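Structure tokens
________________
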Amino acid sequence: MKLRDQIPDLHAEGEWINTRGIRTEDLIGHKPTLIYFWSVSCHTCKRAMPLINQMRDEFKRELQVLSIHTPLTEDDKEIESIKKEAEKFNITEPLFADQSEMLSRRFQIRYVPAYFIFTKEGELKHFQSGRNGIAMLRRRLGRILE
């Protein structure tokens, strides 16, 4: 994805957790949105979870957060493992288990964790992936929410 691209279609095969489902239209026109991709087998993702939760809670009035689990291995597709990790790491926001990797392909995920910040109009303003950069993500989020 490139800056200024619109939020991709969120309709995909998989299971929603913590919600009945989210459509792309549900995210546009309200607040900026942080969408992050993670995997149960990604240790870097797990280290970042408390920081993501902190931002989610701190900016709950100004920001929508959506979590997407993308499998890195066949074992990562086990829905019970995803639910267990979501509970363990206090993922309370809408979570999509992307077993078919449809959303991962639409968002062009190469590495996890991956973070996307969209404006309230649905335009991509920031993207980053990999182990570094939570501080950068927080700064960019702060600028977008000002």
